[in-house]
Amino acid sequence: MMGGKTPFAWAARAFRVPGEERRSLVQIAKATAAAVIAWIVATAVLRLPQPFLAPYAAVFLVQATVYRSLRGWAQQVGAVSVGVLLAAGAGQLIPSVTVALGLVIFVGLLIGSWRGFGDSGVWVGITGMLLISYGNATEPVLLADRLLETALGAAIGAVLNAVILPPLHGERLRAATSRLASAIADVLDRTAELVRGGEPTDGLDDRMEDVRSLVAEAEDAIGWTREGRYLNLRGRRESREEPLANLVSLWHPLAQLIDAVSEAARSEQPFRHPGEHARGVVGDLLEALAEAVRSGDPDKLDRCRELLGEIDHLLVTPTDEVTTSIGLGAMALPARRLVQRLRAD
């Protein structure tokens, strides 16, 4: 959670900046409060004996999203119920505690592997194991207590997570947008250098791999944001994911553009590589695209459209320099797609 930061630096950033550290701190505080409240209710109000499962369940139900908390509550209560029934059956039918323990663990983990239980599936075997080992499996009242305290703790954790500062992931979305825009713009600038100079620039392949990685991170951020907004009382205030999704859509035409430029630069056949003037126009277009991506300003695309028009003119009007260059056409198509997808936002 803290990565390479010291605990003091991490805590200072959590209080100073409304980012991931602060969200983690809020979730930790909520999990702690849920556990304490569950313990107080189970001991002082319901007077349940040894209600250790109540705070345990409460902590685990303060999830990263409200949806996961509510889904986890249903899964956990279902898993614990099956574990209680499994322990009760084994306690009544198998005299040996050792044999009953082994059977309950095996069958419980087997049943818990059903995907409907999700991450809570392990609770089937664990609940059965605890009840058998504590000698509660033959006492119906204690079995009911275990089920009640689990449902109580899980409910308190889920409700606190949904009502008190329900988690959102807007800062993750904004950070991913900034990083991906910067990486794409940098690749476009370096590609412009390659087009003009005709010589490969250092590190372009590595930077494309960086963009690929950032696209995967962006898709993950979009997924978290959408899930975080679902059933969330603060969901309407969440950041929009459309700008980031728009940047993600640039990946394929960008990769096609890099392939076309690299192939033209490596080719020994003159008709595949545009002449100096055409390369200058393509370079200007890529730099204009980089500026539009970096700034997020749709007005910057006016210059891109002008340059696309000039490229179209070069393609249909033979000159001494350009004779319907295959290389220029190969570069123009993905460049046009980049402009179109940026306009889609």
TrEMBL record:
It comes from the Bacteria. It is a multi-pass membrane protein. InterPro entries: Memb_transporter_dom. The keyword Ion transport does not apply. This is Integral membrane bound transporter domain-containing protein. It is found in: Membrane. One of its GO terms (cellular component) is membrane. The lineage of its organism: Bacteria, Bacillati, Actinomycetota, Actinomycetes, Pseudonocardiales. Keywords: Membrane, Transmembrane, Transmembrane helix. Residues 38-159 form the Integral membrane bound transporter domain. It comes from Amycolatopsis keratiniphila. The chain crosses the membrane at residues 25-46, 82-111, 117-135, 147-168. Its main location: membrane.
